[in-house]
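Let us begin with a simple case.
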Amino acid sequence: MSSLTLTFKPVNFSQASFKKAPIVSLQGMPVLLFNQQHLTLLEALEQKKVKIFSECRSGFCGQCKTKVKSGSVAYIKEPLVELEADECLPCCCVPDGDIDLALSAEGAEVVVRVASPKSQVNNDSLSDNPATQN
């Protein structure tokens, strides 16, 4: 019977570096949080039902070429297609921080923030009439 020895190694969180998951926006509208559940940006966009045409998924056909309005990407494999400075191939890259793409959000599954009842202002409390104030 073998014995297993457990050791404790303290973690110094003040020296740890934590990176938040990038927010992917489409024409300024936040659509998804890229949280490493997907291998590529293309897979994440397809899961949210964003309309984007693709063929090869390997970075050599260029069909998914997309304009980047702001932000940057990191490539998993080097694309063989020539790209402009403001373009990316979602099939072979991941966001390197928050990114805004020039794709339409029409038909995509987007999260819409709804104001909570606590944040709504009651017009009666803004009245100048002392009879309506508490």
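The second case is a distinct protein. As before, the sequence precedes its structure tokens.
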Amino acid sequence: MTTDVFIDSFGTCWQDPPPPRYRAAVLGINLTNALLNPPDDPALADIVAHQTGQDAGVRDYVLNTPGAARIITDAVHELTALLAAAQGRPVQLLANCWYGRHRSVDRTKES
């Protein structure tokens, strides 16, 4: 049996969290203060103004935040535990930051 895992990202400044997927067990991660925000860096502000976390330079900058690897590792462990507890139900990861363009962005795919 295959369990669906959904990843949704959003900006809390602009929108409410996406609604839970049908019967999904939900894990939320707030990245607002946990990861560096590229627009806050004066050397990058103009460069990243029209980019997102899906652009390699932005993604690399964010992932070079001290502790970023630990955040990812912890999220994987929490999602793994949630999958086990969900007993075949879908699982949804909600990743958010303030604007939802640079730190929380991931390609949202339905499995």
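Confidence is low (pLDDT under 50) at residues 106-111. The helical segments are 45-48, 56-63, 68-86.
Keep these points in mind for the review questions at the end of the chapter.
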